[in-house]
Design goal:
40% of the residues lie in helices and 11% in strands. It is an alpha/beta fold and 220 residues long.
């Protein structure tokens, strides 16, 4: 069996790839750059995780047009990545408009071209409180798109095992699978030493704190 794994190099997607391997799939790693501030670090980490898993392939896709679209603090240098406690309510400014539909469209093409059985994407409960394209309803709808838009015998299954889990629960799974978190990166704004205060750093640190394990990456 083969599975396309969307691998950002972050904590969730890396755990997800280890889980897919544990489930018996050979990994087709799919990484995206889209003008995000930490794209160099994310790519480096994604490649390391792919090597850990002896991935069959590492496909690096440039979606630079999302930077041109803008309207996200991840890609628009005119916008500030705010500390977690200043981020406020509603849709976070780190939301990249309709990003997951873009990513999953490429993943579906890759999966169909390589006769893969599944696509793994690491959407999780903490995300869909703010990101509409992480909601279970969106995932269900995209599964229908895959079924309708690919060959009748493709049978590609969209897998989201973390969709109802929080970050601490995901981390526990990763620890059981010996995921190498020292080779992952979550910070939204820095490439060398994590800022420790953006929303992504906040939730990562909180997950490690909740399960009583020291995060192996450095923070300011």
């Amino acid at each position: 069996m083969k599975a396309v794994c969307l691998l950002s190099g972050g904590m969730d997607s890396s755990t997800l790839a280890f889980l897919a391997k544990h489930d018996g799939y050979d990994i087709l790693a799919l990484h995206f750059t889209y003008g995000q501030r930490t794209e160099e670090k994310e790519r480096e980490c994604a490649k390391r995780i792919a090597r850990h898993l002896n991935a069959l392939e590492f496909l690096d896709v440039d979606l630079a047009y999302l930077k041109k679209v803008g309207a996200s603090s991840l890609t628009d240098q005119r916008m500030q990545v705010k500390p977690h406690n200043e981020a406020g309510e509603g849709i976070p400014e780190t939301y990249v408009p309709f990003r997951n539909a873009n990513l999953l469209s490429v993943a579906t093409s890759f999966a169909e071209a390589r006769a893969a059985d599944a696509i793994y994407i690491g959407v999780q409960a903490s995300d869909y409180s703010g990101y509409p394209d992480c909601r279970p309803e969106f995932i269900d709808a995209f599964q229908k798109v895959i079924t309708l838009g690919t060959r009748p015998d493709s049978g590609i299954e969209l897998k989201t095992p973390f969709v109802r889990l929080n970050k601490a629960e995901i981390l526990k799974i990763g620890m059981e699978l010996n995921a190498p978190y020292e080779d992952t990166w979550s910070c939204y704004s820095e490439n060398e030493i994590a800022c420790g205060i953006c929303g992504s750093c906040h939730f990562r640190r909180e997950a490690f704190r909740q399960i009583g394990i020291e995060d192996p990456i450095q923070y300011r």
